[in-house]
Amino acid sequence: MDVYIKEKERIERIVNLQNVSLINNNSSKKKKHYEIGNDGKVQLVKDLTLLSLGWRNCILIDYPLRTTNNYLDNIFEKLNTIKCLKIQFKTILNGIAEEMEFIYFINYENLLSYLKGENIFKNRIIVNVDKLISNVSNIINNVKVKENILFFLKLLSNEIINSLITNKNKLNIHLNLYQNNNFIDNNYFIPFDCTLMNGFLLNYPILYSFESRFDKENYTTVNFTANHLLNSISLMRFNIFCNETRIINFTIPQHIITSKESIILEEITKWKMLYYTNNNFQLLQEIVEHDSIVL
């Protein structure tokens, strides 16, 4: 039997048992509020399967999971290495500081190993979101800006590593970066580049970042708003598949890959050889357009 299908069936049994327990332990009124929906359950099972197999280190939870406090904890206890990581940070929306929180499910051991890896900052193409509207390559090459981005990623990586180690025995790990002295002392990290953080934690070889947030000489926090520049433009989407299961996917604007095709494809190939070496993993490409992407 396919290893993915076998593990998926095991996790489905665990999740379904929790659903039954959830229904039996709540009144009908509470059941309506707390019972996880079918779409959420399908995505949850897939995410937990990929994490359990070690095919993903970290997955951003961007779908609703309306559950009781211990629903996920009971599932995580049966899966050993999977935990929940919550990261809080501050950003600037129309000149006003806003607190935000992202929630990730993680394979604890694999994420820790990934963040400690010697090659973690290699084989990355950084796309400048600030200039996506122009029809140029938009790859960040400014040396000082790249140094600042690297410093940010190393600082972020170290803080997450410390939090993981300190909270090794907890199922839920909470990291508050806007109360973290290392980030407070580097004020130009606010607004926080959560777009860059996500790409980095999710282990994409293509990272989107706002060059303006890492340009100390011309830095401003006043006019930042949510960015929709990836909407309705042609994107090249790269997918890693195992048989018919999509494991991970990432995009880059088609006009950028057209102008720097050999460099970009070389870095993506190196990334695949580093993290998805098994011959069962296939790299496939397709052109897509979306209308609901927010960076």
How would you portray this structure in words?
- With 295 residues, the chain is of the alpha/beta class.
- 41% of the residues lie in helices and 22% in strands.
- The strands form 3 sheets. Strands 1-3-2-5 form a 4-stranded mixed sheet, with helices on both faces.
- Mean pLDDT is 81; it is low at 22-34.
Number of helices: 10
Please give the radius of gyration in angstroms: 20 Å
Overall mean pLDDT stands at: 81
Strands in their spatial order, largest beta sheet: 1-3-2-5
What is the end-to-end distance?
A: 39 Å
Q: Decide which structural class fits the backbone.
A: alpha/beta
Secondary-structure element order, as H and E? HHHEHEEHEHEHHEEEHHE
Query: What is the helical fraction, as a range of percent?
Result: 40-55%
Shape: globular
- How many β-strand stretches? 9
The major pleated sheet works out as:
4 strands, mixed
The proportion of strand residues reads: 15-25%
Contiguous low-pLDDT stretches (5 residues minimum) are 22-34
Topology:
Elements: H1 3-24, H2 28-34, H3 38-53, E1 58-60, H4 71-79, E2 82-93, E3 96-107, H5 108-116, E4 125-128, H6 143-166, E5 172-176, H7 181-184, H8 194-201, E6 206-209, E7 235-242, E8 245-253, H9 254-259, H10 261-275, E9 281-288
Parallel strand pairs: 2-5, 4-6
Antiparallel strand pairs: 1-3, 2-3, 7-8, 7-9
Helix pairs in contact: 1-3, 1-4, 5-6
